[in-house]
Amino acid sequence: MWSTAAWWWAHHHIRLLLPALFLAAALFFFLASPRSSPSFFALPASREHSPSGSRLIWAQRRLAEWRPCEWWQTAMPAAPSTRNGYIRIDCYGGLNQLRRDLCDGIAVARLLNATMVLPKFEVAAYWNESSGFADVFDVDHFIEQTRGYVEVVKDMPEEISLKEPFKVDCRKRKGHFDYVETVLPALLEHRYISLTPAMSQRKDRYPAHVKACYCQGCYNALQLNKKVEAKAMELLQAIPKPFLSLHLRFEPDMVAYSRCEYSALSSKSLDVIEAARGEDRNVLIGDAARLWRNRGKCPLTPSETAFILQALGIPTETNIYLAAGDGLMELEGFTSIYKNMYTKSSLLTHEDFERMHGNTKAALDYYVSVNSDAYVTTFFGNMDKMVTAMRTMQGLQKTLVLSRRAFANYTAAGLAGDQLAKAMWDAHREDYIMGRGLALPEHCFCEFKL
User: Fold this and answer.
1) What DSSP state is assigned to residue 58?
2) What per-residue confidence (pLDDT) applies to 200?
């Protein structure tokens, strides 16, 4: 039994200690709590989940990655001292389609043992574009980086430069065909030809030195010129860090071309889609529509994109740069959830933005996306293939192509809410940890097991 004096001492001191202990605990939790939102690259604690219960996609341990193969970056066998003639590569479309054709043309020039002159950009009226190769890319860097792989010159002998090149258009060629059999005779006869490469030419049968020329020309030789690069760096520096670059594709023409039906869109969006549809783009119906959608042919809407990003644990306070052109529809379905969004038009001065051609704007998106902390795309077109390849060249692995096919199949199976989010998490996690889904040219990139 306690004595009366002992009981009085304990009771008196506990009354004094309790407030102090309470205050100390409060100060501890206040000081220990984070002052700002956690980076979306940090590994969440076990209790820290997205609303769907998924953990952050970037925190998953990767099992395999793609890296540039070493063999094509080593010394190549010297090209023959005599050439068969001169080739100018004629490229069509938007910036990344132009780049695709140019990459193919570089390989063909070496295959045919031709001297390559600076390419010509033939841009359709749709792109509202007038810039040439030198307006976007660094000519001297291109020539220097292709040295030893293919000869590139700014000027030709006068007797050749005064005449128009003989035009060889291979765009409509389907399946595998032989450039040596098809194009070389014209080159030998005319000595100067303009070539438009085939849109889907197989490269697996090229000799090793031609594959190496393609890889070097496409991934090391194409660099923005100093003026465009300076503007791109200015844009990059203006974006709060860290940030995710999102290539969101949901324009009227794209939706019309997909022939997919969307019932939950606004009347305004439906009207502009219908106006872009034309006679040959009727909406698919019935079994054909279901099969088409389940094959992943229907573009993700902005609200569907936001849902998938949440399912992947991307916090809604993430800084997001929107790499996209004009005309995006239903954007409020995304910005109502991810509010920290930035665009070229919001970060550049109005004068700068208005002076730019379409190719220059696309070049800015390309540069920012390659150098972003993470890159996500809802489609896999020419820009996405170039961006993912260049990010792989630089060892930037936080890159993901959202699966339209998985989303379509799971929603068709009746999944929604947390069940759908969990299914999307599983599908994308598998792709991410195994390094799948980027469609990198295998002769330029090699799989590396971690």
Assistant:
1) G
2) 65
**CB contact at 8 A, 328 and 247:** no
DSSP assignment string, 328-371? --STHHHHTT---EE-HHHHS-HHHHHH--HHHHHHHHHHHHHT
435 Cβ contact partners less than 8 Å away, ≥ 6 residues apart = 62, 63, 64, 65, 66, 397, 447
Q: Name the nearest CA neighbour of 292 among 392, 196, 412, 205.
A: 412
Kindly report, residue by residue over 167-215, the tens digit of the pLDDT: 999 888 766 678 999 999 999 999 999 999 987 666 777 899 999 999 9
d(CA 217, CA 220): 6
- For CA atoms 76, 81, 84, 90, the dihedral sign is positive
Other residues' Cβ atoms within 10 Å of the Cβ of residue 24: 9
- Dihedral sign from CA coordinates of 59, 61, 67, 70: positive
Contact 445, 69 (CB under 8 A): yes
- The secondary structure element, H or E, covering residue 287 is helix 286-294
Give percent of the chain above pLDDT 90. 61
C-alpha 47/C-alpha 55 separation (Å) is 10
Structural contact between residues 353 and 345, judged by C-beta atoms closer than 8 angstroms: yes
The backbone torsions φ and ψ at residue 299, rounded to the nearest 5 degrees and listed phi first, read -60, 145
Task: Find, among 203, 231, 42, 222, the residue nearest to 142 by Cα.
Answer: 222
C-alpha distance across the termini of the chain, in Å: 68
Q: How many CB atoms lie within 10 A of CB 10?
A: 11
Give the three-class secondary structure for 316.
coil
Residue 385: left if φ>0, alpha if ψ -120 to 50, beta else—which one? alpha
**Cα angle vertex 323, ends 322, 329, to 5°?**
65
Structure tokens at 167: 């035009």
Nearest to 266 by CA among 293, 299, 301, 307: 301
Give the Å distances, CA to CA, from 213 to 29, 79, 109, 168: 60, 11, 9, 21
